[in-house]
Amino acid sequence: MHRVLEINEILVLILQLIPHESKHPTAAAVASTCRAFYEPAYDALWEELPAMRPLFNLLPRDLLARAGFRHDVARELGAQEWARFLNRCARVKTLTLKERDGGDDLEDRIRTIVLMRRGSTGPILPKAHTLLVDGDFFAAGRGHVGHLPLFVGPEIREVRFTAGTSRQHREIVEQLMLSCPRIQSIGLLECRGKEARLLPSFAGLETVVCSGNVDLPILARVRSLRHLSVPLASEPVGLTGTEDAASAIVRFPVLETLKLRGIRHSRHVIPLLESIHSPRLHKIHLETSNQRHPDAPRSCGAALTALASHFPRLRSLTLDGWWPLATFPHKAITELHHLEELCLTSGKFTLADQCIVDLGGACPALRHLEVYSAQRQDERLSSWTLHALELAVTHLPRLEHLATNFDTLHVDTLAAPRATSRAPMTLAVTKSPLYAEHIRPAAAYISSVYPNARFGLPENYVVKEGDEDHRRWGQVAQAVLLHKDVV
Predict the structure, then answer these.
(1) Which InterPro entries match (predicted)?
(2) Within 13 Å and on the Cβ side, how many CA atoms surround 259?
């Protein structure tokens, strides 16, 4: 066979071959089902357009004729052909521009669409809300940038760049300012210079994600910015100066979430935290890249102290990378009394029973707790005991999710719990020295403390072949279910 049938072709054939009044109940049921899913199937098929070529392939190949060195339209596009093309275009929600879409063939197809629009003023993809630029799409010619408003219009809300040069990004952003003024989210490889100065022009811009160098003083002036995710490899400049009028500017006035990646020294976050004037900031994610230096503990402590001082009503805190915290919870964390989510993915401490008591006294609203050890393979992992679950019932009554890779100790010394909770607790444990004789006692204890307990895996956790820890905890989960049935 030269090709396979597409979903839409299969549906059309079924609808043509099986009429409404079919005497065969099974066939009639199949046809009825196909009619019900006909439109949803088309929507699903065209909702995400991975490249522009599938769209151009809808145009008949005999439309183009070569006249000298240029292509021209050989015939008029029929009304049904044009309607079929626009019908597919109206279903596209996400458009991806790829490198292989470039070249002369693309230019020919674009010229055809331009000539066949017949004075229409709307974009070809009227309902597209997401634009992804993957690869050096515009390398074939800068003229393609000028054609961008032909395809997308004011419904575009999100734009992401994964490749290309700063100049190309700037040209695209300039076009989007005219055709897509209501963009709410933009992702760039770099955000500095001219392209950064264009961003405040988008009145509704709420989210900026950048993977390279970023001009924070300019982003600070985007008055609608609510979510910011950028790298911070060095101390930011231009945010805390008092020598000129710029110091009077209200920076990040409505910021709600902040994610800083690639932090080389935790003290670098202090000037940025001090420059944020938003009372709405409730979520902070700090990810370090290399903090194994002698001053790291003091630097981390200063950063956390500044964080707690400026944002005492913080509800979510994630410390990713290497944070050498000698104790848990850190004093600064105990000052965040409104904390609901806490995630520590590094450090060298023990989740002792007293830690649960102290954390409950400081953060009674905590619902989500993740603590991970980042020691090397030749070092002993930190530990915790299942007895901490019983303490969590008393001191953290709202806790619904607990994830850790700490070693689970002292299962053989568990006694009957004195506190229980019917909260839908989820346990995501990846490291456990549980032996076969510990499985039933652990299951009985967990079932007694949290009768509605569920077992899961931490986010982004990959189960490796021969993972004994995962296998043993799977047996514990099965034993918990069996224990519930027996009870």
Answers:
(1) LRR_dom_sf
(2) 12
Domain-located, residue 102: yes
Residue 163 lies in a domain: yes
- Domain tally for the chain? 3
- How many CA atoms lie within 13 Å of 311's alpha carbon, on the beta-carbon side? 28
Please check whether residue 331 lies inside any domain of the structure: no
485 and 357 in a single domain? The answer is: yes
pLDDT in tens, 205-251: 999 999 888 889 889 889 999 999 999 988 787 676 544 444 446 68
Among 160, 183, 206, the domain boundary falls at 183
> 17 and 127, same structural domain?
no
Query: Do 102 and 51 fall into the same domain?
Result: yes
Distance separating alpha carbons of residues 201 and 234, to the nearest angstrom: 27
Quick one: 429 exposed, middle or buried, by C-beta within 10 A (0-12, 13-18, 19+)?
buried
How many Cβ atoms are within 10 Å of 57's Cβ, its own excluded? 10
Residue 308 resides in a domain: no
Q: Residue 383, SS3? A: strand
Quickly list DSSP for 212-247.
S-B-HHHHTT-TT--EEEEE-SS---SSS--SSGGG
- 100: containing domain: 47-183
State the pLDDT confidence band at 475, using cuts at 50, 70 and 90.
confident
Indicate the DSSP class of residue 52. Answer: S
Full DSSP string of 161-211: E-SS-HHHHHHHHHHHHHH-TT--EEEES-B-HHHHHHGGG-TT--EEEES
Residues 360-386: pLDDT tens digits? 999 999 999 998 876 544 445 577 888
**Residue 252 · residue 277 · CB < 8 Å:** yes
Asked whether the beta carbons of 480 and 455 are under 8 A apart, the reply is yes
Report pLDDT for 361: 93
Q: In this structure, are 352 and 487 located in the same domain?
A: yes
20 and 142 together in one domain: no
Same structural domain, 385 and 459: yes
Q: Which residue has the tokens 């899913």?
A: 37
Same domain, 359 and 429: yes
Residue with tokens 């707790």: 369
DSSP string, 306-347: HHHHH-TT--EEEEES----SSSS-TTGGG-TT--EEEE---
DSSP labels, 106-148: HHHHHHHHHHHSTT--S-SSTT--EEEEES-GGGG-THHHHTH
Do 100 and 4 lie in one domain? The reply is: no
93 is written with which tokens? Answer: 């929600």
223 close to 245: Cβ distance less than 8 angstroms: no
Six-digit token string for 227: 């979510």
